[in-house]
Sequence to fold (131 residues):
Amino acid sequence: MNTNCSMLTEEEMSMIKKTLEIKKENLRNNREFRLSQIKDSGEVLKDAADMAGHEEDLEKMWFFLNRDQNNEQKVGEALKRIDNGTYGTCKECDGPISFKRLQIDPTSELCIFCKNELELEESNSRTHQLH
Ligand SMILES: [Zn+2]
Fold:
């Protein structure tokens, strides 16, 4: 098996790991905050005469909560990839993902070429759907 063909130096890897760990911590704090907000507004809801506005707020809160949870999962997976030595390698072509790209999005699983190709495919299928 072709493991750890990433071009990251140890120093770059530990920088990214630190970024991911901070990100994870922030996301976890966010999640706890949102959950307590949802819980609070649920308690308010019992007495509220006007439920429509609350439901909308609640929907928004769930939306952000889901988004944060997705991000948290992605960050967790990236940290796992660091541990098992597959981090920085493209999921599609096994090529290295550049440090610059990982600095911008440390959870990226695709190299810039595969990512571009994927986006091209997506925008093509969107265009097809329009007609
Ligand atoms: Zn690739």
Observations:
- The longest helix spans residues 10-45.
- The domain at 10-130 is CATH 1.20.120.910 (Four Helix Bundle (Hemerythrin (Met), subunit A)).
- Residues 1-5 have pLDDT under 50 and may be disordered.
